[in-house]
Amino acid sequence: MNLKRITRLLQLLQTLQAGQGENADALAKACGMSRRTAFRDLETLREAGVPLHFDKTSGRYSIEAEYFLRPTNFSFDEALSIVALTSDLGAGTEAPFFGAARSAALKIQGTLAADLRKEVQQLGRYISIRLNALDQLKGSEAVYARLVESLAERQVAQIRYQSLTEWEVIETKLRPYQLFFDRHAWYVIGRSSLHSGPRTFNVSRILNIELLDQKYSRPRGFSLARYLGNAWNIMRDLAPDEQVTIRFAKIVATNVSEVKWHKTQRLEWRADGSLDFHARVSGFSEIIWWILGYGEHAVVLRPAKLRKQVAARAENVCKIYARDDNQLPARPGTGAGARVKQR
After folding, report:
1. ∠ CA(327), CA(306), CA(183), 5° rounding?
2. Stated pTM of the model
3. What pLDDT score does 340 carry?
Protein backbone atom coordinates (compact mmCIF):
# COMPACT_ATOMS: atom_id res chain seq x y z
CA MET A 1 0.00 0.00 0.00
CA ASN A 2 1.54 3.34 -1.04
CA LEU A 3 1.75 6.55 0.95
CA LYS A 4 -1.01 8.31 -1.00
CA ARG A 5 -3.51 5.51 -0.35
CA ILE A 6 -2.63 5.39 3.35
CA THR A 7 -3.21 9.14 3.57
CA ARG A 8 -6.53 8.78 1.74
CA LEU A 9 -7.73 5.99 4.05
CA LEU A 10 -6.86 8.04 7.14
CA GLN A 11 -8.75 11.00 5.69
CA LEU A 12 -11.76 8.77 4.99
CA LEU A 13 -11.62 7.37 8.53
CA GLN A 14 -11.44 10.85 10.04
CA THR A 15 -14.35 12.03 7.86
CA LEU A 16 -16.50 9.10 8.96
CA GLN A 17 -15.64 9.63 12.61
CA ALA A 18 -16.18 13.39 12.58
CA GLY A 19 -19.60 13.45 10.85
CA GLN A 20 -23.07 12.13 11.50
CA GLY A 21 -22.87 9.83 8.53
CA GLU A 22 -22.29 10.46 4.82
CA ASN A 23 -23.29 8.70 1.62
CA ALA A 24 -20.71 7.46 -0.89
CA ASP A 25 -20.95 10.57 -3.09
CA ALA A 26 -20.35 12.92 -0.13
CA LEU A 27 -17.42 10.84 1.13
CA ALA A 28 -15.86 10.78 -2.34
CA LYS A 29 -16.14 14.56 -2.63
CA ALA A 30 -14.81 15.19 0.88
CA CYS A 31 -11.77 12.99 0.28
CA GLY A 32 -11.12 14.03 -3.32
CA MET A 33 -11.66 10.64 -4.95
CA SER A 34 -14.05 8.90 -7.27
CA ARG A 35 -17.23 7.15 -6.07
CA ARG A 36 -15.75 3.82 -7.14
CA THR A 37 -12.59 4.47 -5.10
CA ALA A 38 -14.74 5.43 -2.10
CA PHE A 39 -16.50 2.04 -2.20
CA ARG A 40 -13.17 0.24 -2.51
CA ASP A 41 -11.67 2.14 0.44
CA LEU A 42 -14.77 1.55 2.57
CA GLU A 43 -14.36 -2.16 1.96
CA THR A 44 -10.68 -1.92 2.91
CA LEU A 45 -11.63 -0.32 6.23
CA ARG A 46 -14.23 -3.00 6.86
CA GLU A 47 -11.69 -5.76 6.17
CA ALA A 48 -9.31 -4.07 8.62
CA GLY A 49 -11.88 -4.43 11.39
CA VAL A 50 -13.31 -0.91 11.42
CA PRO A 51 -16.96 -1.23 12.62
CA LEU A 52 -18.66 0.46 9.65
CA HIS A 53 -22.40 0.99 9.93
CA PHE A 54 -24.54 1.41 6.80
CA ASP A 55 -28.04 2.89 7.04
CA LYS A 56 -30.05 1.43 4.12
CA THR A 57 -32.74 4.10 4.41
CA SER A 58 -30.46 7.11 4.06
CA GLY A 59 -27.56 5.36 2.29
CA ARG A 60 -25.13 6.81 4.83
CA TYR A 61 -21.99 5.28 6.28
CA SER A 62 -20.79 5.96 9.82
CA ILE A 63 -18.63 4.58 12.65
CA GLU A 64 -18.82 4.95 16.39
CA ALA A 65 -17.06 8.10 17.60
CA GLU A 66 -15.32 6.15 20.38
CA TYR A 67 -13.83 3.58 18.03
CA PHE A 68 -10.58 5.21 16.96
CA LEU A 69 -7.83 5.07 19.62
CA ARG A 70 -10.14 3.82 22.30
CA PRO A 71 -8.75 3.98 25.89
CA THR A 72 -6.30 1.23 26.75
CA ASN A 73 -5.82 -0.45 30.12
CA PHE A 74 -2.16 0.24 30.87
CA SER A 75 -0.29 -1.39 33.74
CA PHE A 76 1.58 0.90 36.14
CA ASP A 77 4.96 0.00 34.57
CA GLU A 78 3.65 0.62 31.03
CA ALA A 79 2.17 3.99 31.94
CA LEU A 80 5.31 5.05 33.82
CA SER A 81 7.58 4.13 30.89
CA ILE A 82 5.48 6.21 28.48
CA VAL A 83 5.42 9.24 30.76
CA ALA A 84 9.12 9.03 31.70
CA LEU A 85 10.35 8.51 28.15
CA THR A 86 8.26 11.20 26.52
CA SER A 87 8.60 13.70 29.35
CA ASP A 88 12.38 13.56 29.55
CA LEU A 89 13.93 11.59 26.70
CA GLY A 90 14.92 14.02 23.99
CA ALA A 91 13.42 17.06 25.70
CA GLY A 92 15.35 20.08 24.41
CA THR A 93 17.39 17.93 22.01
CA GLU A 94 14.75 17.19 19.35
CA ALA A 95 15.42 13.44 19.38
CA PRO A 96 13.93 11.49 16.45
CA PHE A 97 10.12 11.48 16.51
CA PHE A 98 10.16 13.11 19.97
CA GLY A 99 7.57 15.78 19.11
CA ALA A 100 5.02 13.31 17.76
CA ALA A 101 5.69 10.82 20.58
CA ARG A 102 5.24 13.54 23.20
CA SER A 103 1.93 14.59 21.68
CA ALA A 104 0.72 10.99 21.56
CA ALA A 105 1.76 10.38 25.17
CA LEU A 106 -0.23 13.37 26.37
CA LYS A 107 -3.32 11.93 24.68
CA ILE A 108 -2.66 8.52 26.21
CA GLN A 109 -2.25 10.04 29.66
CA GLY A 110 -5.69 11.53 29.33
CA THR A 111 -7.18 8.04 29.10
CA LEU A 112 -5.62 6.82 32.37
CA ALA A 113 -7.58 6.58 35.58
CA ALA A 114 -7.13 9.78 37.64
CA ASP A 115 -5.22 8.14 40.51
CA LEU A 116 -2.89 6.25 38.14
CA ARG A 117 -2.28 9.36 36.02
CA LYS A 118 -1.35 11.43 39.11
CA GLU A 119 1.00 8.76 40.46
CA VAL A 120 2.93 8.15 37.23
CA GLN A 121 3.23 11.89 36.49
CA GLN A 122 4.70 12.51 39.93
CA LEU A 123 7.14 9.62 39.75
CA GLY A 124 8.02 10.50 36.17
CA ARG A 125 9.45 13.82 37.39
CA TYR A 126 12.08 11.91 39.36
CA ILE A 127 13.39 9.95 36.34
CA SER A 128 15.83 11.58 33.92
CA ILE A 129 17.35 10.30 30.66
CA ARG A 130 20.22 12.16 29.02
CA LEU A 131 21.23 11.88 25.38
CA ASN A 132 24.37 12.95 23.58
CA ALA A 133 24.25 16.06 21.44
CA LEU A 134 22.11 15.46 18.36
CA ASP A 135 21.95 16.73 14.83
CA GLN A 136 18.59 18.49 15.04
CA LEU A 137 17.92 18.47 11.27
CA LYS A 138 17.14 22.19 11.42
CA GLY A 139 16.76 23.40 7.86
CA SER A 140 16.66 19.82 6.57
CA GLU A 141 13.09 18.92 7.50
CA ALA A 142 11.99 19.16 3.85
CA VAL A 143 14.87 16.91 2.77
CA TYR A 144 13.89 14.31 5.36
CA ALA A 145 10.25 14.45 4.24
CA ARG A 146 11.26 13.98 0.60
CA LEU A 147 13.39 10.96 1.51
CA VAL A 148 10.42 9.41 3.30
CA GLU A 149 8.31 10.06 0.21
CA SER A 150 11.01 8.59 -2.02
CA LEU A 151 11.07 5.41 0.09
CA ALA A 152 7.27 5.15 0.15
CA GLU A 153 6.76 5.73 -3.56
CA ARG A 154 9.99 4.04 -4.71
CA GLN A 155 10.99 7.17 -6.65
CA VAL A 156 14.60 7.93 -7.54
CA ALA A 157 15.90 11.13 -5.93
CA GLN A 158 18.36 13.59 -7.48
CA ILE A 159 20.51 15.07 -4.68
CA ARG A 160 23.24 17.66 -4.26
CA TYR A 161 25.49 16.66 -1.38
CA GLN A 162 28.32 18.26 0.61
CA SER A 163 30.73 15.34 0.58
CA LEU A 164 33.55 14.93 3.09
CA THR A 165 35.03 12.13 1.01
CA GLU A 166 35.32 13.97 -2.30
CA TRP A 167 35.80 17.31 -0.47
CA GLU A 168 33.33 19.03 -2.74
CA VAL A 169 29.63 19.30 -3.57
CA ILE A 170 28.56 16.30 -5.63
CA GLU A 171 25.40 15.42 -7.53
CA THR A 172 24.03 11.91 -7.82
CA LYS A 173 20.86 9.94 -8.41
CA LEU A 174 19.95 8.13 -5.21
CA ARG A 175 17.79 5.04 -4.79
CA PRO A 176 17.13 5.07 -1.01
CA TYR A 177 17.13 1.70 0.76
CA GLN A 178 17.09 2.70 4.44
CA LEU A 179 16.69 5.79 6.63
CA PHE A 180 18.27 5.35 10.04
CA PHE A 181 19.25 7.40 13.08
CA ASP A 182 22.56 6.54 14.70
CA ARG A 183 23.78 8.15 17.94
CA HIS A 184 23.87 11.73 16.74
CA ALA A 185 22.44 12.10 13.25
CA TRP A 186 20.10 10.85 10.51
CA TYR A 187 21.56 8.91 7.59
CA VAL A 188 20.19 7.46 4.38
CA ILE A 189 21.66 4.42 2.64
CA GLY A 190 20.99 3.89 -1.04
CA ARG A 191 22.48 3.17 -4.42
CA SER A 192 24.33 6.18 -5.78
CA SER A 193 24.63 6.53 -9.55
CA LEU A 194 27.87 8.50 -9.14
CA HIS A 195 29.52 5.72 -7.14
CA SER A 196 27.80 2.83 -8.99
CA GLY A 197 26.86 1.20 -5.71
CA PRO A 198 25.39 1.70 -2.24
CA ARG A 199 26.60 4.63 -0.13
CA THR A 200 25.74 6.25 3.20
CA PHE A 201 24.75 9.94 3.22
CA ASN A 202 24.30 12.28 6.18
CA VAL A 203 20.81 13.78 5.72
CA SER A 204 21.89 17.19 7.06
CA ARG A 205 24.51 17.50 4.32
CA ILE A 206 22.01 16.98 1.50
CA LEU A 207 21.79 20.49 0.07
CA ASN A 208 18.95 19.85 -2.38
CA ILE A 209 16.68 16.96 -3.33
CA GLU A 210 14.21 16.43 -6.19
CA LEU A 211 12.12 13.35 -6.84
CA LEU A 212 12.37 12.12 -10.41
CA ASP A 213 9.71 10.46 -12.52
CA GLN A 214 11.68 7.24 -12.30
CA LYS A 215 10.89 4.16 -10.21
CA TYR A 216 13.29 1.74 -8.53
CA SER A 217 13.19 -1.50 -6.55
CA ARG A 218 14.74 -2.04 -3.14
CA PRO A 219 17.06 -5.09 -3.22
CA ARG A 220 15.21 -8.04 -1.71
CA GLY A 221 18.15 -9.17 0.38
CA PHE A 222 19.14 -5.75 1.73
CA SER A 223 19.34 -5.26 5.49
CA LEU A 224 21.02 -2.59 7.59
CA ALA A 225 22.86 -5.19 9.67
CA ARG A 226 24.25 -6.92 6.58
CA TYR A 227 25.27 -3.63 4.97
CA LEU A 228 27.15 -2.35 8.02
CA GLY A 229 28.72 -5.75 8.76
CA ASN A 230 31.22 -5.43 11.61
CA ALA A 231 31.77 -1.70 11.22
CA TRP A 232 32.69 -0.10 14.52
CA ASN A 233 29.76 2.24 14.03
CA ILE A 234 28.63 3.19 10.49
CA MET A 235 31.85 3.37 8.44
CA ARG A 236 32.58 -0.01 6.88
CA ASP A 237 35.68 -0.52 4.74
CA LEU A 238 35.67 -2.85 1.75
CA ALA A 239 38.76 -4.66 3.04
CA PRO A 240 38.30 -7.97 4.90
CA ASP A 241 37.42 -7.85 8.60
CA GLU A 242 40.35 -7.91 11.01
CA GLN A 243 40.79 -9.05 14.59
CA VAL A 244 41.94 -6.27 16.92
CA THR A 245 43.22 -6.38 20.50
CA ILE A 246 43.54 -3.31 22.70
CA ARG A 247 44.96 -3.41 26.23
CA PHE A 248 43.39 -0.99 28.69
CA ALA A 249 45.12 0.05 31.90
CA LYS A 250 43.57 -0.80 35.25
CA ILE A 251 42.43 2.79 35.81
CA VAL A 252 39.95 2.60 32.87
CA ALA A 253 39.45 -1.18 32.56
CA THR A 254 36.26 -1.36 34.61
CA ASN A 255 34.78 1.58 32.70
CA VAL A 256 35.48 -0.15 29.38
CA SER A 257 34.06 -3.47 30.57
CA GLU A 258 30.73 -1.94 31.62
CA VAL A 259 29.70 -1.03 28.05
CA LYS A 260 28.81 -3.17 25.03
CA TRP A 261 30.97 -1.29 22.52
CA HIS A 262 30.75 -3.77 19.66
CA LYS A 263 28.72 -6.86 18.87
CA THR A 264 31.84 -9.03 18.46
CA GLN A 265 33.70 -7.87 21.57
CA ARG A 266 35.34 -10.30 23.99
CA LEU A 267 36.93 -9.20 27.28
CA GLU A 268 39.95 -10.83 28.87
CA TRP A 269 40.94 -9.71 32.36
CA ARG A 270 44.62 -9.84 33.34
CA ALA A 271 46.13 -10.56 36.74
CA ASP A 272 47.34 -6.97 37.16
CA GLY A 273 43.80 -5.56 36.68
CA SER A 274 44.30 -4.46 33.10
CA LEU A 275 41.90 -5.57 30.36
CA ASP A 276 42.46 -6.97 26.88
CA PHE A 277 39.63 -5.97 24.55
CA HIS A 278 39.14 -8.23 21.51
CA ALA A 279 36.85 -7.52 18.53
CA ARG A 280 36.55 -8.23 14.82
CA VAL A 281 35.95 -5.03 12.87
CA SER A 282 35.34 -3.84 9.30
CA GLY A 283 37.73 -0.90 9.01
CA PHE A 284 39.79 1.16 11.45
CA SER A 285 38.65 4.78 10.95
CA GLU A 286 36.13 4.90 13.78
CA ILE A 287 37.87 2.59 16.25
CA ILE A 288 40.99 4.79 16.03
CA TRP A 289 39.01 7.73 17.41
CA TRP A 290 37.73 5.55 20.24
CA ILE A 291 41.21 4.30 21.14
CA LEU A 292 42.72 7.79 21.13
CA GLY A 293 39.95 8.93 23.48
CA TYR A 294 41.57 6.82 26.22
CA GLY A 295 44.97 8.46 25.67
CA GLU A 296 47.91 6.75 27.37
CA HIS A 297 45.59 4.23 29.06
CA ALA A 298 45.00 2.25 25.82
CA VAL A 299 47.60 0.34 23.78
CA VAL A 300 46.91 -1.51 20.51
CA LEU A 301 48.46 -4.98 20.60
CA ARG A 302 47.33 -6.07 17.15
CA PRO A 303 47.18 -5.82 14.21
CA ALA A 304 50.44 -4.03 13.51
CA LYS A 305 48.95 -1.68 10.91
CA LEU A 306 46.31 -0.42 13.36
CA ARG A 307 49.05 0.13 15.94
CA LYS A 308 51.02 2.18 13.38
CA GLN A 309 47.99 4.27 12.41
CA VAL A 310 47.20 5.12 16.04
CA ALA A 311 50.85 5.98 16.65
CA ALA A 312 50.88 8.25 13.59
CA ARG A 313 47.77 10.10 14.78
CA ALA A 314 49.29 10.52 18.25
CA GLU A 315 52.49 11.82 16.66
CA ASN A 316 50.51 14.38 14.67
CA VAL A 317 48.83 15.57 17.87
CA CYS A 318 52.23 16.01 19.52
CA LYS A 319 53.49 18.01 16.54
CA ILE A 320 50.48 20.34 16.69
CA TYR A 321 51.05 21.09 20.38
CA ALA A 322 54.80 21.52 19.86
CA ARG A 323 54.23 24.37 17.40
CA ASP A 324 53.64 27.97 18.43
CA ASP A 325 51.33 28.97 15.55
CA ASN A 326 48.29 27.00 16.80
CA GLN A 327 47.48 26.01 13.22
CA LEU A 328 45.56 22.81 12.46
CA PRO A 329 46.24 20.64 9.37
CA ALA A 330 44.37 21.80 6.26
CA ARG A 331 42.29 18.63 6.27
CA PRO A 332 41.59 15.97 8.88
CA GLY A 333 43.89 12.97 8.59
CA THR A 334 46.68 14.69 6.62
CA GLY A 335 50.28 14.22 7.61
CA ALA A 336 51.71 11.00 9.00
CA GLY A 337 48.29 9.53 9.72
CA ALA A 338 46.03 8.04 7.11
CA ARG A 339 43.27 10.25 5.79
CA VAL A 340 39.95 9.74 7.55
CA LYS A 341 37.24 8.73 5.11
CA GLN A 342 34.02 10.55 5.98
CA ARG A 343 30.71 10.37 4.25
Report:
1. 70
2. 0.64
3. 42
